[in-house]
Every structure is written in C-alpha cells, then in structure tokens.
Amino acid sequence: MNYTFIYIGLKAIISLDKVVTIIPYGSSPSRRLKEDSRKQGKLIDATEGRRTSSLIITTSNHLIFCAVAPATLAQRLGLRLKKT
User: Fold this and answer.
1) Distance (Å, rounded) from C-alpha 54 to C-alpha 19?
2) For a tag site, which of 20, 24, 25, 41 has the least CB within 10 Å?
C-alpha cells in the first residue's frame, strides 16, 4: 500500500489520505471548532508554540493546529489556488 504524506512544518508530517480539509485559522467558526475539539479530546497542536495559521481536519474528526499557511500547504501538494 502506498501512502502520500505532507510535511506540515516543525518536523511533523501527516498522511494525506486522512486529510478532509485545510482551513485558515482566525475566524469565529474556526475558533468554535477549536473549542469543540478540545472538549472532545481531539485537538492536536503541531505548532510548537508558534502562531497557528491553519487547521487541518482529519477523517477521524481530529483537528490539527499547524503553523504553516494553507496556501503553503497547497503549494507543497502541487496545487494552484485561484483568486476569486
């Protein structure tokens, strides 16, 4: 079985097969997601004390805090973002 991984910074990698979405952090809905995940024990902080730039939601409903911007993560995946 072949797995694809993405480097999310600070010596951390995750399996791309488990990623549902990557969203920017800072809006009210993202802050509510953070609180809900913390209450459920499904919050993973991969920032090592740095400012959170993006949230990664996994298939197991875990929420991963990431210090790398969503656009940078998309670049690492070889995706191009269109401005609307």
Assistant:
1) 13
2) 41
**C-alpha 46: how far from chain center:** 9
The count of domains in the chain is 1
Q: Is residue 84 part of a domain?
A: no
Whether 12 is covered by a domain: the verdict is: yes
**Cβ contacts of residue 59 below 8 Å, gap of 6+?**
17, 18, 19, 20
Q: Is-contact 40 78, C-beta < 8 A?
A: no
Structure-token pair, residue 39: 């209450």
| 19, 6 contact by CB (below 8 A) | yes
Query: What are the tens digits of pLDDT across the range 27-55?
Result: 888 889 999 999 999 999 999 889 999 99
